[in-house]
Design brief:
This protein has 4 helices and 12 strands; from the N terminus they run βααααβββββββββββ. It is of the alpha+beta class. It has one domain: Sandwich (Jelly Rolls), CATH 2.60.120. Helix 2 runs antiparallel to helix 3. The protein starts with 11 loop residues before the first strand and ends with a strand. It binds fe (ii) ion.
Length: about 200
């Protein structure tokens, strides 16, 4: 991904504000939380797709704006994208986080240890796709697309979806991500970081 300056591909974890004890997602989008809980009872292969549906249906323009008003006042790193936990399922079935991307911030190239779904809610992200070469033990870039606010993606655990997200614009971008892990595991049990190359 030649256009992305990889300032630092590890996210910063923002602490919860002292006065916030309740889930922001539960506060603004209680029906979406309920829909994600129900999606977690679906067969494993369907969960990510159902969660993506829940994000798409719940994030009305008004709810998105309300949530963004709260997210955008939180401290964000200049060095890397910043992760803010929006909801931690009490039973540990899933966690929802907002990722705040400054200009030129990007993720590592990664697959996932769990299901995942995300929706861009502000700005534009670039998503590069990679294919795993089992012989070379490397992921190779084969495609790159723009994801505008309102677009969403889901993927299952494994090497089927290998991607890298980044903000190649001069403006902040925000995306909402749901993962099938408890909040304590979000830094260690979601991204399966892989070696990669641009060309075979
Ligand atoms: Fe991912």
């Amino acid at each position: 991904m030649q256009n992305i300056l990889n300032v630092n591909s590890a996210p910063s974890m923002a602490p919860l504000p002292k006065n916030q004890t309740a889930s922001l997602l539960q506060h603004y989008l209680p029906d979406t939380v309920g829909q994600i809980v129900r999606a977690c009872s679906e067969p494993t292969d369907l969960i990510a797709y159902r969660v993506r549906q829940a994000l798409n249906e719940g994030f009305s323009p008004q709810a998105t704006q309300q949530l963004l008003t709260r997210i955008n006042v939180r401290p964000a790193s200049d060095q890397s994208y910043t992760r803010h936990i929006l909801h931690a399922d009490p039973e540990g079935r899933f966690t929802v986080a907002a990722l705040v991307w400054g200009p030129q911030h990007c993720s590592p190239v990664h697959a996932h240890h769990t299901w995942c779904a995300y929706r861009v809610v502000m700005g534009e992200l670039s998503e590069s796709h990679f294919e795993w070469d089992a012989i070379a033990q490397k992921a190779y870039l084969f495609n790159k697309v723009k994801r505008q606010a309102g677009q969403s993606v889901s993927g299952n655990a494994g090497l089927e979806l290998i991607h890298r997200l980044g903000n190649e614009t001069a403006h902040r971008a925000v995306s909402i991500h749901a993962y099938g892990v408890d909040a304590e595991s979000i830094s260690t049990h979601v991204n399966h970081v892989l070696p990669w190359a641009e060309k075979m």
